[in-house]
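Minutes, structural biology subgroup

Action item carried over from last meeting: produce the structure token record for N-acetyltransferase (Qipengyuania atrilutea). EB confirmed the sequence was re-checked against the source entry. Recorded below for completeness.
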Amino acid sequence: MAGSSYDIEHVGDEDSGEYRATVDGKVGKLTWKKRNEGIRVADHTLVPPEIGGQGVAAALVDALIADAKEHGFKIVPQCSYVEHQFDEHPEWGDLRAQ
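Output recorded by EB:
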């Protein structure tokens, strides 16, 4: 159900952080860490089974992509879900770190 709208919270500092979406009291997360200036490694996407299949993970990736566009950083999709989303969205190619 991609395209669903969730309130996404970003917490962290300049070295690491996570995007969080809370649905029915359960929290889905996408975590990242800074590799070097201008590059973030998206290392884990975790969505509890109780809220799986509702587009939560896709919304978390969308929030990361929106921040990359706004703040000018590139992304290493270490997490297999984030990598899959990059493959599904070739228009994001300029945001993928080499």
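Discussion: Residues 22 and 65 are 19 Å apart (CA to CA).
Next step: EB to file the record with the rest of the batch.
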